[in-house]
Specification:
It comes from Streptomyces citrinus. This protein is α+β, with helices and mostly antiparallel strands. It has helices spanning 4-8, 12-23, 27-36, 87-103, 168-197, 201-207, 248-261, 299-309, 328-332, 337-349, 382-401, 429-461, and strands at 44-54, 60-65, 74-76, 122-127, 209-218, 224-233, 264-266, 275-277, 284-287, 372-374, 414-425.
Length: 462
């Protein structure tokens, strides 16, 4: 908080608020609250109280009220998964997603998956959109169609060679139907598996299960594509081995055949022609290795990759991370030309396809699905992971207060009364500066701890 060099760069209003916060009587508690949220960018403010009493004697065992907090409010993390909105909460979400995917790859009895599932056939599949017109790209060692060898971070990558002929309407309508394409893909995949095994669909289902976890990612051109971990299980899910016919090659062939079969029809409306949507021809299916052997497609790499994109959305293409009401807002927001045209296409198409809610999802370039999903038996759930974390923090709090473990107290002997109300969100400018510094320090501590663990692992191997 005494970083004078950092404070010297603040604008006068923020600097004045930093000094106000630092000089306030409740500064230590404000700092503690912000640290407990992980430096959340936009914390939720709550007002209320909780009291735990002994049912028999009426004795107060524990009580808490926000009346004792600075400003009479308690700050809790917003929980937003988007890194563009809250880097701190997005980091937590990415960590949860990593452990969810990893538990479905290497097995984790604490998360409901056995270690033996490492022996199950597993692939990492990427399903992409078709072409809507040629775009600037980096095709290996060859120059782009425009004749230039683009740098890796070139701004023009993903933008059309000729914007006037690019199918912007087709691109956003494809995004809008991408979730339907995925749903039909999972249906056809089970059919293709049964056909290749020489079984009826019912018999194949009685002998095996298909589990998956997937994440959506935007390509630079603004089209959605899906990365999916797809795993063969036995009839009882991850706890049972897959049948002898459930091989890696059968799964790979079935994925390719199912992706080729998927079609979603869109009827003509107004001046817009009928369309048939399908997956693009750049389907990639790679086996996931159980142990590192020089290949990038390892369990660790896959889990990290999926977690990385679970916190990103359309803002990676240059658009914004909130809804846009009209085209005039695009000028005020200074949205680049290509994503601006995609958003305008959504707004123009809304009247012709009102049930597709293109105006509501214009900032997402038409996509309206979930970014991270999984089948029921793939592994644990995000809710379960969050509950474990909440229970751990509650246990820490009870230990600090000297309270007994609730599992050791008969439920009928205590009574807890609580009342909470929403009281706002966000930070003042000074609090926001403080939160960003706390978030930076926490990130540095995590990186230092991670490097120390890596060094320790290297020493053990040596």
């Amino acid at each position: 908080m005494t970083d004078s060099a950092a404070m010297a760069g603040l604008d006068p209003a923020t600097l004045a608020d930093v000094l106000r916060v630092a000089g306030s009587p409740g500064f230590d508690r404000i700092q503690d609250q912000i640290r407990r949220t992980g430096g959340c960018t936009d914390p939720i403010h709550l007002q209320g109280a909780t009291v735990t009493r002994d049912r028999t004697t009426g004795q107060v065992l524990y009580s808490y009220s926000t009346d004792t907090e600075p400003g009479g409010r308690l700050r809790v993390a917003c929980g937003n998964r988007r890194a563009s909105r809250c880097p701190s909460c997005a980091w937590t979400y990415a960590g949860d997603t990593y452990h969810l995917i990893r538990a479905g790859l290497v097995g984790d009895p604490d998360k409901g998956t056995p270690r033996t599932l490492r022996e199950h056939p597993r692939v990492f599949a990427t399903l992409t959109a078709p072409s809507f017109g040629p775009v600037h790209n980096r095709p290996g060692t060859r120059p782009c169609r425009c004749g230039i060898r683009h740098l890796e971070d070139a701004a023009e990558l993903g933008t059309p060679l000729d914007p006037d002929t690019y199918d912007y309407a087709g691109s956003v309508l494809w995004n809008n139907h991408a979730s339907d394409l995925w749903r039909y893909f999972t249906i056809y995949l089970r059919r293709e598996i049964a056909a290749r095994a020489g079984l009826t669909q019912k018999a194949a289902k009685e002998q095996s299960r298909l589990s998956f976890g997937k994440v959506a990612e935007y390509q630079k051109r603004g089209a959605i594509h899906f990365h999916a971990v797809i795993r063969f299980d036995g009839p009882d899910g991850p706890d049972s081995p897959p049948p002898h016919w459930a091989t890696l090659s059968l799964l790979t062939d079935a994925i390719r055949a199912a992706a080729a079969r998927v079609r979603v029809d869109l009827d003509a409306s107004g001046d817009h022609p009928a369309r048939v949507f399908g997956w693009g021809d750049r389907l990639d299916v790679q086996p996931i290795k159980a142990f590192g052997d020089g290949s990038e497609i390892t369990e660790q790499a896959v889990a990290s990759y999926v977690a990385k994109y679970a916190t990103k959305a359309a803002e990676t293409t240059g658009t914004v991370d909130r809804r846009i009401g009209n085209k005039e807002a695009l000028v005020l927001l200074d949205v680049p030309d290509h994503p601006r045209r995609l958003i305008e296409a959504c707004l123009d198409l809304h009247a012709s396809y009102p049930d597709r809610k293109l105006r509501d999802w214009a900032h997402m370039l038409g996509f309206r699905g979930h970014f991270s999903t999984k089948s029921r038996r793939f592994s644990t759930t995000l809710g379960a992971l969050r509950q474990v974390r909440a229970d751990y923090r509650a246990a820490q709090h009870r230990a600090a207060l000297g309270l007994p473990d609730p599992d050791e107290i008969p439920e009928e002997t205590t009574l807890t009364l609580a009342h909470w109300a929403y009281a706002g969100h966000g930070h003042t400018p000074g609090e926001s500066w403080l939160a960003s510094n706390i978030r930076r320090d926490l990130q540095l501590n995590r990186e230092t701890a991670r490097e120390a663990l890596a060094d320790l692992a290297d020493e053990k191997e040596w």
